[in-house]
Amino acid sequence: MNKLNLQIPTFKLHRWVEIQIEESKSGKETLQVQGLTETGGAYDIFKSVSIDGVKGYSKALTEDQMQEGSEFKVKLQFQGHYDEPDVTLTIPRALIKASENKVQVSLRFDPNVENAQLKGIRGNWEEPTAYFNQKIVLGQVIYTQGQQAAAKAAANGLAKQFEKKMNLAPASKAPGMKSKATQNKAPIAKTGAATNKKV
Predict the structure, then answer these.
(1) pTM for this prediction
(2) Is 185 part of a structural domain of the chain?
(3) What is the pLDDT, as a whole number, of residue 179?
(4) Which of 51, 81, 148, 152 could, after both became Cys, cross-link 59 (CB 3.0–4.6 A)?
(5) Average pLDDT by consecutive 10-residue portion of the chain (199 residues)?
């Protein structure tokens, strides 16, 4: 590639998620979340989804959530093939309603850089972008990255501290055990007149 004077593009994981409000004839609303392919087909890419703290890909909205000015916290947990942390998106209701009741969000993950929000975590989700029909840019989405990744980093830190302490601790002997030098040492026979003494 260098001889051809071509730059090798940096690998980034690209994911799409669609967030939709479905209205019933009775006026009730349900928020629905699903993964998408690049061409808009349904794609099962999430390990789990939570909407406003409730696990599930759909949630019946309360009267308060159906009010103008409300926001939805959509937490996405990925399969983790690239150690990608979970992401929580803040989606304004007004954004969905202005996009014919559904909006698509583009997420790009770079596994080769330090995380911008989480100390000690490798890999970073870039700022998500909201789209209409996956073509027209609507704007950037407020987001936070991963409680699970932070917990994992903390656990790894504790494990390293424990390992360091164990390596520094003096080796202990089990009760009644002799050292290898003592175990392999042959008994010394007494010499001199004492060995010929009759009993």
Answers:
(1) 0.73
(2) no
(3) 46
(4) 51
(5) 72 97 96 97 96 97 96 96 95 96 98 94 96 97 80 54 61 47 49 46
Which phi and psi (to 5°) does residue 177 adopt? -90, 140
Q: 3-state SS of the chain: helix, strand, coil percent to 5?
A: 20, 40, 45
Residues 6 or more apart in contact with residue 64 via CB below 8 angstroms: 70
Compute the distance between CA of residue 32 and CA of residue 68 in angstroms, rounded to an integer.
18
148 touches 86 (CB < 8 A)? yes
Output the DSSP codes for 10-74. PP-EEEEEEEEEEE-TTS-EEEEEEEE-TTS-B---EEEEEETTEESSEEEPPTTTTSTT-EEEE
CATH of the domain at 27: 2.60.40
pLDDT at 84: 93
Tokens of 69: 């000015």
Dihedral angle computed from the Cα positions of residues 123, 132, 88 and 124, in that order, rounded to the nearest 10 degrees: 10
Q: Are 65 and 72 in contact (CB under 8 A)?
A: yes
Compute CA distances 168 → 11, 156, 162, 165, 179, whole Å: 41, 18, 10, 5, 20
Report if residue 65 sits inside a domain: yes
25 alpha carbon, distance to own chain's centre: 39
